[in-house]
Design brief:
elongated, single chain, mainly alpha, Helix Hairpins, 123 residues
């Protein structure tokens, strides 16, 4: 009878009995995650010396900015950010194809992917 009269209260009691508190994920959480991912990518670009790892860190930075755009779009209630993200993903796909082709060409020419050894433009 209690469940029929107050189903939300009964569900809340069940959740609290297990020990899990209901919580919402807000805009600040998404922006914090986006900033964290961007910082990891940024420091990866600065500190790593492998071309592939640097390229993955650049993609991580792009994904972090995409996450922030989606979060702002969702919490503002508009579709502008979602449309912008669609174009970001399209450009990122083309960037991956061209970037990996350049890295493969450099590896075939120099037999290395280390940035220190790829500093000269001539052979």
């Amino acid at each position: 009878m209690n469940f029929i009269l107050a189903p939300k209260l009964c569900m809340l009691r069940t959740v609290l009995a297990v020990g899990q508190l209901p919580s919402e994920v807000g805009l600040n959480h998404y922006l914090l995650l986006s900033a964290l991912l961007f910082a990891i990518g940024f420091f990866g670009v600065l500190l790593r010396r492998n071309t592939l790892v640097v390229y993955m860190c650049l993609e991580l930075m792009l994904s972090a900015s995409t996450l922030a755009a989606v979060a702002f779009s969702h919490f503002n209630g508009s579709m502008d950010g979602d449309i912008f993200v669609f174009f970001i993903i399209t450009v990122a796909a083309a960037e991956v194809a061209v970037g990996l082709a350049i890295i493969v060409a450099l590896f075939r020419l120099r037999r290395t992917v280390q940035l220190e050894e790829l500093s000269a433009l001539r052979h």
